[in-house]
Amino acid sequence: MVRELGEEIDLEIGTGDDDPSFASTPLISGPPREPSAEEHDESKQMAMVSQLPGEDPDLSKTQSMKRKKKVVKRWREEWADTYKWAYVDVKEGTARIFCSVCREYGRKHRRNPYGNEGSRNMQMSALEEHNNSLLHKEALRLQMASKDKIIVDKPIYAKALMSKTAGSIVEAALKRDPHEVEFIQSLQEAVHALERVIAKNSNYVNIMERLLEPERTIIFRVPWVDDRGETHVNRGFRVQFNQALGPCRGGLRFHPSMNLSIAKFLGFEQTLKNALSPYKLGGAAGGSDFDPKGKSDAEIMRFCQSFMNELYRYLGPDKDLPSEEMGVGTREMGYLFGQYRRLAGHVQGSFTGPRIIWSGSSLRTEATGYGLLSNILFLNSVFFAQLILADMNKELKGLRCVVSGSGKIAMHVLEKLLAYGALPVTVSDSKGYLVDEDGFDYMKISFLRDIKAQQRSLRDYSKTYARSKYYDEAKPWNERCDVAFPCALQNEIDQSDAINLVNSGCRILVEGSNMPCTPEAVDVLRKANVLIAPAMAAGAGGVTAGELELTHECNSIPWSPEDFESKLQEAMKQTYQRALKAATDFGYQKDSPEALVHGAVISAFLTIAQGMNDQGCV
After folding, report:
1. 3-class SS at 373?
2. Would you identify the family this protein belongs to, as annotated (predicted)?
3. Distance between CA atoms of 118 and 371, rounded to whole angstroms?
4. Residue 175 above 60 pLDDT?
């Protein structure tokens, strides 16, 4: 009996015929293993022995077993992907096939998935019986929802810190939360930026240690019923990271990869981002491992209502108000707010974000679903890029820009780039990326929106526009560009992608999503003097827009879209200037590639530290 997927499994051998340690070892995914040279020689030797006259009966039996194992091995290599769910264990002295998630066998999980006679019909019949069982469906859903959360020997990239004090902060976090990779990465970047601050005032070490521990972490069950009447369970999160400056604001993300590490990383980033805005607010983040893709409106409504049934008691205008994030749009926010209003018994403190404004303001979303407020809200990163270029006596007009993602942020970035006269040439999805050498225009962007609304592939775009091409299993970072706008997921740009960006001529990278670069990628970009505009600063305008929106609703101030955009641009200028000033105050050159990144963290941290220091041990 052997342990790796793709190797032979003979259910008829006993527990003492091979390595007994297989019992607790699951057969997890992996490519079929070729027999080693040693095993090959052993097989040859056995074949030679079998040809000798007067062979021993035991050897003949061994040969028969080996031959049988080879037959099973060939079959398992052919069907390895089909049976990733299975592992072998001993039950009451007999080897059985178990489900690798729920660890059950028998009626709900057929004891012998190979079938009684080993025929393919029996094999597939057993597979269908297993996969159609409700028990396995739920086990498989949990496995898919948590597959990105399970970290097995995944290395954490540790930055070299000059200060032992700064290093001790990271070391303590690693000991406390060793498996929270995204959160560790985020705090490492922050501590690296704060080295000079900590060196000047050792009292900040204690404040940083308190800041890195969330004030409140809420994890809860979210049961819901699909359209077929089947019950599902997801996990909900809300991390209220810090409220030293005021009530929390932060997004909700619905995505299968969502876990506690990502919730903490997003909450930490949001805390710093909110501290940079003119409105002093606390930071929070949350969401669920629920995947809204492929779900009906009724299913999403039932999930959102169940999610809010637990979360509402922690929300309120003076506590915490959520906003949109990945997987949560106007529809989801509407369902969430409706249930919150029913449970809380009031409508004070509407949820923030580019959504329908039910009070009927002049910034109401238009019939297309992409109204003026939505457009204004996502100009942040583009306007921030314009501020950077203005300091270089340049402008966006005529510059070739690559954009990743094809969601709300990416689409609005495309529109704003067009408004500034730039040439956006790419968008991407989880399967690959699309490049249009002629650049996108408003008609093409509208077509892209239709494709995404109908849940079609971006490759359908290239069937209409001959000068475009869709590349499977690739990223847009090797396309020639002047400015890059990553607007998809965290860590979408790794070291090789960063090298491609440098070789493609990129001089500025503006983060549209949170933490889009791995630490290794950041090192490559900095060494190549590529200026990075952090999401913390470039996205601070979103916080401002949300608060302006709430102020507009509560006070019924008659603002036009032009007034709103003007106020938002002024807030973005202040954020940019604060980040640069903080960087120069601590010895970073204004034109340094890390000036904006470090300056934004320093400015935000000093603001939070002042509040925490004034309030005592909080």
Report:
1. helix
2. Belongs to the Glu/Leu/Phe/Val dehydrogenases family.
3. 61
4. yes
Q: Which helix (H) or strand (E) holds 98?
A: strand 94-99
Domains of the chain: 214-349 (3.40.50.10860), 376-607 (3.40.50.720)
Over the stretch 455-489, which tens digit does the pLDDT of each residue have? 888 999 999 998 899 999 999 999 999 999 999 88
Buried b (16+ CB within 10 A) or exposed e, 495-506: bebbbbbbebeb
- How far is residue 195's CA from residue 538's CA, in Å, rounded to a whole number? 22
Q: Give the span between the Cα atoms of 562 and 257, in whole angstroms.
A: 38
Of 71-80, 385-394, 510-519, 523-532, the poorest mean pLDDT is in 71-80
The pLDDT score that the predictor gives to residue 409 is 85
CA distance 375 to 532: 24
Name residue 618's amino acid.
V
**What is the pLDDT, as a whole number, of residue 231?**
95
Tokens 């190979």 — which residue?
114
Q: How confident is the model at residue 368 (pLDDT cuts 50, 70, 90)?
A: very low
574's CB contacts (< 8 A; 6+ apart) are 278
The Cα 267–Cα 271 span in angstroms is 6
Evaluate whether 611 touches 547 at the Cβ level (below 8 Å): no
Find, among 154, 548, 139, the residue nearest to 377 by Cα.
Answer: 548
- By the 10 Å C-beta count (0-12 exposed, 13-18 middle, 19+ buried), 228 is classed as exposed
Q: Cβ distance 560 to 376 under 8 Å?
A: no
Return all residues near 274 (Cβ < 8 A) that are at least 6 apart: 245, 249, 250, 280, 281, 282, 283, 540, 543
